[in-house]
């Protein structure tokens, strides 16, 4: 098992890529904290994992709230005594073309996708510095490198995530803390599945592998970067995109 007895916090773990990552980490032997803003989904995810013999707990958290983030870290340490891995997966979209985007739409995405990542990363880094070890993994996107029509706010937020990832890698390496990001392409999440068939076909056609990615594809990337197999990898942005950016 790649992550045996490692303690991991995964934000946005109630569904989609976050849930798949929690399942993958548990399968690899990790003890997982399911963190999500949707309190109603946490208990069902935790119950399903523990029924399969995993060790998971749930904590309701709004990543934009410093008090919630502090509570998340406190509960993790109280229950497991340490923190080895953080997956900053929580994120939102509020799409609109530039001339139509509202201030509220821009602020919502930046608050969750940038401020939330910052707050979780900062709190985790303080704990990991004391331990002299740890891994921080951030959710980026191919949009954060190449941009995307109608996603000024989302693209800007993921550019910000990339910048934080590389900066933290520089700052935290001396404490034996690795920091990387995963940049998914078009992934078949519940949100994407609701899109019109024409749009889904366009997404598939853009990928060299001629399909949408699965949440498990991204989870596998996170598991690799969290493991000792990636012990000499830091400051990188791993694309999991089926070749859509080539």
From TrEMBL:
GO molecular function: glucose 1-dehydrogenase [NAD(P)+] activity
InterPro entries attached to this UniProt entry: KR_dom, NAD(P)-bd_dom_sf, Sc_DH/Rdtase_CS, SDR_fam
Family according to the record: Belongs to the short-chain dehydrogenases/reductases (SDR) family.
Taxonomic path: Bacteria, Bacillati, Bacillota, Bacilli, Bacillales
Organism this protein belongs to: Alkalicoccobacillus plakortidis
Top EC class for this record: oxidoreductase
Alphabetized UniProt keyword annotations: NAD, Oxidoreductase
The protein's name in its UniProt record: Glucose 1-dehydrogenase
Entry EC no(s): 1.1.1.47
Pfam families reported in the protein's UniProt record: adh_short_C2
Ketoreductase domain mapped to chain residues: 6-185
SUPFAM superfamilies with a match to the protein in the record: NAD(P)-binding Rossmann-fold domains
């Amino acid at each position: 098992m790649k992550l045996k007895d490692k303690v991991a916090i995964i934000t946005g773990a109630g569904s989609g890529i976050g849930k798949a990552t929690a399942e993958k980490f548990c399968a690899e032997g990790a003890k997982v904290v399911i963190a999500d803003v949707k309190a109603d989904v946490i208990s069902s995810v935790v119950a399903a994992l523990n029924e399969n013999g995993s060790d998971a707990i749930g904590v309701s958290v709004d990543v934009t709230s410093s008090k919630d983030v502090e509570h998340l870290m406190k509960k993790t340490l109280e229950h497991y005594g340490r923190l080895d891995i953080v997956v900053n997966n929580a994120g939102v979209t509020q799409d609109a073309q530039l001339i139509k985007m509202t201030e509220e739409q821009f602020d919502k995405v930046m608050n969750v996708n940038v401020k939330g990542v910052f707050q979780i990363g900062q709190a985790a880094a303080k704990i990991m510095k004391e331990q002299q070890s740890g891994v921080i993994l951030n959710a980026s996107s191919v949009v954060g490198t190449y941009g995307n029509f109608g996603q000024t706010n989302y693209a800007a937020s993921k550019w910000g995530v990339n910048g934080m990832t590389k900066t933290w890698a520089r700052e935290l390496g001396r404490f034996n803390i690795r920091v990387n990001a995963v940049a998914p392409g078009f992934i078949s999440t519940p949100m994407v599945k609701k899109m019109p068939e024409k749009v889904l076909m366009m997404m598939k056609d853009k990928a060299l592998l001629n399909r949408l990615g699965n949440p498990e594809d991204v989870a596998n990337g996170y598991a690799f970067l969290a493991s000792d197999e990636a012990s000499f990898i830091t400051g990188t942005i791993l694309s999991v995109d089926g070749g859509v950016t080539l």
